[in-house]
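Worked example 2:
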Amino acid sequence: MGLLALTACGSDDGGGGGDGAGGDRLDVVASFYPMEFLAERIGGDHVSVSTLTEPGVEPHDLELSPRQTAAVSEADLVVYLAGLQPTVDEAVESSGVEHVVEATSFTTLEEHGDDVDASGDHADEHADEGEEHADEHAEEGHAEEGHAEEGHDHDHEGADPHIWLDPAKYAEVAQGVGDAFAEADPDHAADYERNTEALLADLTALDEEFTSGLEGRTSDTFITTHAAFGYLAEAYGLHEEAITGIDPESEPSAARMRDLHDIAEADGVTTVFFETLVSDDTARTLADDTGLRTDVLDPLEGITDESAGSDYLSVMRANLAALQEALGVPAS
């Protein structure tokens, strides 16, 4: 008899649960793709992972079906990120699940995108902030340690949830997920630890690729559809200018669009980035008005057939290549 009584809920619409062939595996429900990726890489053959957010669904807009809500309650372990999907937060809080892994509890959150409706020149101020954070990020050892400090303040109000777009912060979450898996399923703790260490090594390598791959750039500023890339920008001394704020469905003001025209000219911006899961109409309008090109910078909220890779690591490398071209990194 194992420590945990494992259940299979047989959901076919994003709910959790193992199947007949995997009835002895840990039943893990992940809220959306970045949590699913961690669960699959760390859990390996010992887990059955399902996601609440199907490919192609914008995570911020997710509404859970009754079956999905039931799947959360029936899971052995839930991996989610609080503050991103309110319906998931509510389902987890009312589920009574014994083992819950909340991603932001393993790292620190910051506020980004709070100036997108302002007008005026913010470029110098934000570039300085990005460089300061990049130095701070390097001193902390990037992803090599992989452990979050205990006792973080986790007030999510106004905070940017897109922590997975900084490989170092994502590594902190990965370490926390690995520890939680080992606690929930101690019989396989050694395997979870090995899988976690392998993932941390991959994230460290990715972090180093971004650091070296962005050297020699001629510009620090890039424009995106919504403010998803604040952590990535700060990690590598870049400056994100977003058309809208953290919420991808919000509409930009006329003042914001005028501001972006000025910023693009002043900072030598070449590219307006749009996303695969959000309408590109506003980004293309801005690009047409300013004579800039468009390209995809993927916030990795989901993997679809249109994604530039099959998993987190490959899509992040595609993002790096897109940034290198947009920021004028010399060809090697």
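The beta strands are 26-30, 47-51, 77-80, 99-102, 221-226, 239-244, 271-274, 293-296. Residues 1-22, 117-134, 136-155 have pLDDT under 50 and may be disordered.
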